[in-house]
Amino acid sequence: MRFKFPVMAIALEVAMIALFGIFIEYDTEQMNLHLPNTTNSTKVDRFLELHSLFQDVHVMIFVGFGFLMTFLRHYGFSSVGINLLIAALGLQWGTFMQGIVHSHGKKIHIGIKNMINGDLSTVTVLISFGAVLGKISPSQMLAMTILEIAAFVGNEYLVGEIFKASDIGASMTIHAFGAYFGLAVAGVLYQSSLRKGHKMETSAYHSDLFAMIGTLFLWMFWPSFNSVIAETGEEQYLAIVNTYFSLVACVLTAYACSSLVEKRGKLDMVHIQNATLAGGVAVGTCANMQIHLYGSMLIGSIAGIVSVLGFKFLTPFFTTKLRIHDTCGVHNLHGLPGVVAGLASIVAIAMGACKKSNMAMQAAALGSSIGTAVVGGLITGLILKFIVRGQPSEDNFFDDSIYWEVLNSVLFLNL
Q1: Confidence label for 38 from pLDDT (cuts 50, 70 and 90)
Q2: Which CATH superfamily is domain 12-25+46-390 in?
Q3: Which among 86, 231, 188, 198 is positioned nearest to 145, based on CA atoms?
Q4: Angstrom distance (rounded) from CA 371 to CA 382
Q5: Which residues are CB-neighbours of 206 under 8 A, at least 6 positions away?
Q6: What is the mean pLDDT of residues 22-51?
Q7: Which residue ranges make up each domain of the chain?
Q8: What's CA 200's distance to the chain center, in Å?
Q9: Under a CB-based contact definition with an 8 Å cutoff, are residues 302 and 291 in contact?
Q10: Residue 405: CB partners within 8 Å, gap ≥ 6?
Q11: pTM metric for this prediction
C-alpha cells in the first residue's frame, strides 16, 4: 500500500495529463459564444441549462453514491473516500474515452456534453464498486476503473451507434452493465469467509443514518440524471416527469413490501435505502417515451417490489449458492431494475410509445449490456486477482484501519 498505491495513482494521473495534452482542447466555439458582443444566445443558454443538470449528476456521484455506501460501521472512510478517488480518475478517463469514440480519432473539443459523458461513465464504476465494497484495495479499484470504463464505452457505442437503441436514462448501459460487471468481479474475488457473513460486515444506527442521506440525495436528483442527455425539450420534459412519478410510486411499494417480508411487519433500513431508488432505474430506458403517467407509476411500483424481494431472497442465494457476495446489493438496486427497464422499453415500443427504435434492438441492447458486463467483469476480476493483486486478507475485509488513520474515530465508531 505504501508504495504501490502512490506510484500507481501518480502514474495514472501523469498518463491522463499526457492524453489530455495530446488529444483534448478547449471548445473555442463555446468560448466565443460567451463574448459580450455575441448575438447567438441559443448555445449559451443550452450550455448553462446543461450545466445545472451536470451539477445535479455531480452531487449524485460524490454525495449520493458516496454516502449510500457508508452503512458499514467500520468502513465509512473508504466508502466516501475511495468513492471520491475513483470518481476523480473516472471523470478524466471517461471524458477521454468517450471523446475519442465520438470524435472518430480527431481532436476532442471539450464542452459540457463531454463532461456529462465523463460523469456517466464514472457512475458505472461506482455501481460496480458497491458489489466489491470492503473486499478490494484502492490499487485494485484504480485498475478496475480503467478497465471497466473501456468496456463500458465499447458497449455504449454498440448500443447507441450500431443497435440504435433508445436508453435515455442509461438503465441498460450504465445500471445493468455496472451491476453485472461488479457481480462478475465479486465472483472472481469471492472468499469462503463471506458465505456465513463476515464479523465486520455490520451496520450501526449512525452508519445507516448516513447511508440514508445518500439515498435522499440520489432520490432528489434522479430526474436530472435520466434527462441530462435528452436532445430536445420534449424529451427532457418527459424524462423528468416520468422519472419523478416512477420514484414516488416506488417508495410506497418498497415500504409496503419491506413490511410484508420482514418479521412482525417492521421495516428494514437496507430495503428503504435502496429499493426506494429502484423506480428511477426501472423507468430510465423509456423515460423519454410517452408511456403516460400511470405507466411510469406502474413501472416504479413493480421496481420497488422487485428490489425488496431481491434483497430478501436473491442476495442470500447469490452468496451461499453462486459464491457471489454483493456487499451493497447492487443487483437489487441497479441490476434487476435495469432489466425491468429494458423489458419496459420493449413493451412501450410495442404499444407505440416510441418510433425511434424497435423491440429487437432494445432486446439486443439489454443482452449486449449484460453479456459484455459479465465477460468484462470476469476478465477484470482475473486481472485484479492475479496481476494487480493486493486484495486485503479475509480478516481485514470491511475494515478502514488497513488503509486509513482512524485513531480519532474509533470511539465514535464504537458508540
Answers
A1: low
A2: Ammonium transporter AmtB like domains (1.10.3430.10)
A3: 86
A4: 17
A5: 73, 412, 415
A6: 69
A7: 12-25+46-390
A8: 25
A9: no
A10: none
A11: 0.95
